[in-house]
Amino acid sequence: MTAGLAGLSSMFILRQGICVVWNSFLNSLVCMPLILLLGQIRGAYLGGSILTFFLGYSMMFFKSGILLSAYPFSAVLVLSGFDMVEFNGAKSEPDPLLSLAGIAAITALTGVLLSISGTGKSEKAGKNSKISKRKSGAKR
Question: How far apart are the C-alpha atoms of 32 and 13, rounded to whole Å?
């Protein structure tokens, strides 16, 4: 017991710490497609923050069905062991396998966005270096 608080033990702190780290990792994974899309647009940081807040907040309205489990922001909480029935008054227990499928879909989308964004930049970099070589050769 730390600081005289009942129920606070080192095992409790360790378990909750692991839960927080896992939740943070999954949240960053869910937000990654938005970061990849809006990070390439100049000045879209505020819009991206507002959109992420709206998408995260909208999970409060899913009380049952597929969206309660598969929606990526609520899937993070389900996979972290968060009690969705108590948290948002869900009418049914969420399905962890469906939550895993939602996270897998977001991971696949992130992979596609990474492959698309990496290809365009490497082609542009190659073209720019060729153009700069031609310009420097022409000046001499």
Answer: 28
Sequence-ordered strand ranges (E) for 1-140: none
**Residue 68: C-alpha distances to residues 54, 57, 93 (Å):** 16, 13, 9
In order along its 140 residues, the chain shows pLDDT tens digits of 455 567 788 888 898 889 889 989 998 889 888 888 887 788 877 888 888 889 888 888 888 878 888 888 888 888 888 888 887 788 888 889 999 999 999 999 999 988 887 665 555 555 555 555 555 555 54
What does pTM read for this prediction?
0.67
- CA–CA gap between residue 125 and residue 121 (Å, rounded): 6
Burial class (CB in 10 A: 0-12, 13-18, 19+), 51: middle
Q: Which residues contact 96 (CB under 8 A, 6 or more apart)?
A: 69, 78, 79
